[in-house]
Design goal:
The protein is an alpha/beta fold. It has two domains: 2-64, no CATH class; 92-271, P-loop containing nucleotide triphosphate hydrolases (Rossmann fold), CATH 3.40.50. The chain has eleven helices and nine strands. The protein has a five-stranded parallel beta sheet with strand order 6-7-8-5-9. It has a two-stranded antiparallel ribbon with strand order 1-2. A two-stranded antiparallel ribbon has the order 3-4. Helix 3 runs parallel beside helix 5 (142-155) and helix 8 packs parallel to helix 10 (242-254).
Length: 283
């Protein structure tokens, strides 16, 4: 009775595997009696033994196996792209950041090479918790290149959060003490934290304390962060008071300063936009 049951199981297995597998060019191998693929000339059947009973069951020929692997790779690629899109949606807290990529970068920018090298050697920087401090005048490309770093790392499946101090202050504003601590710790799930526009926030005791808590939590985590600011290096190295000093000290210890100066890209872009509009109106 058991042998009969096994026989039926194997028969069903063979029927299921062979169903729809044969095509016009396939042929039977004269020596083994097994079905061969007419395209790649490898076996579409094999013999198996189960509890002493031998049966012929279907199997993938080489070209079918390669096609299946291509489908799997396509699925993996689609899943990876979806994951990257989801990461960017969560990690880029300003819609304009999505366009800040090296593909859109002016390679003549003197600091572009530093941004690229940071991405290329991120594993080393991450190991040491080493970040960057982009400082300099308004419109010189600090935020853009920080965004290039964020997008490039997320393309490599590395979680990044790019935000600003005003957004962080807004998020923390309505939270109780315990919730604030949990929120600050949650930022450490990102392997890189980029905070834009240090110095634009108001200098009230509450704001300064909150900024300090954000920087201090990241500092203690040992994970890297990037700061952009319009403040001068002199202001950062010679803070006006203790409250600013303890913030800047942590930043200067972990972040290598990169000076942005010269050409104002924002002004150039504004001028180009105005000229474009003017041309259209003249037409």
């Amino acid at each position: 009775m058991i042998g009969a049951d096994v026989d039926e199981v194997l028969k069903e297995m063979g029927n299921a595997a062979n169903k729809g597998m044969r095509v016009a060019d396939d042929y039977m191998d004269a020596e083994t009696g097994l079905l061969m693929c007419g395209k790649c000339h490898t076996k579409k059947q094999k013999k198996i033994s189960f509890l002493g009973v031998e049966r012929v069951v279907g199997c993938l020929c080489q070209c079918a196996a390669e096609e299946m692997e291509r489908e799997r790779e396509k699925y993996r690629t689609e899943e990876e792209l979806l994951h990257i899109r989801q990461m960017k949606s969560a990690g880029l807290q300003d819609s304009t950041f999505f366009d800040y990529t090296f593909a859109n970068c002016d390679e003549t920018h003197p600091c572009a090479k530093y941004a690229r090298r940071y991405v290329e050697h991120f594993a080393e920087f991450q190991k040491n918790g080493q970040g960057l401090l982009f400082w300099g005048n308004v419109g010189t490309g600090k935020t853009f290149l920080a965004g290039c770093i964020a997008n490039a790392l997320m393309e490599r499946n590395i979680p990044v959060l790019m935000t600003s101090f005003p957004k962080l202050l807004n998020a923390l504003g309505g939270l109780y003490s315990g919730e604030r601590n949990e929120y600050l710790k949650s930022l450490n799930q990102y392997r890189l934290l980029i905070i834009d526009d240090l110095g634009v926030e108001r200098g009230t005791p509450y704001v300064l304390e909150t900024v300090y808590l954000v920087i201090d939590e990241r500092y203690k985590s040992g994970k890297p962060f990037i700061i952009t600011t319009n403040l001068s290096l002199q202001e950062l190295q010679n803070p006006a008071d203790l409250e600013h000093g303890r913030i800047y000290d942590r930043i200067m210890e972990r972040c290598t300063p990169v000076a942005f100066s010269g050409r104002n890209y924002r002004t150039d872009k504004g001028r180009a936009n105005r000229e474009s509009v003017s041309d259209i109106l003249k037409e």
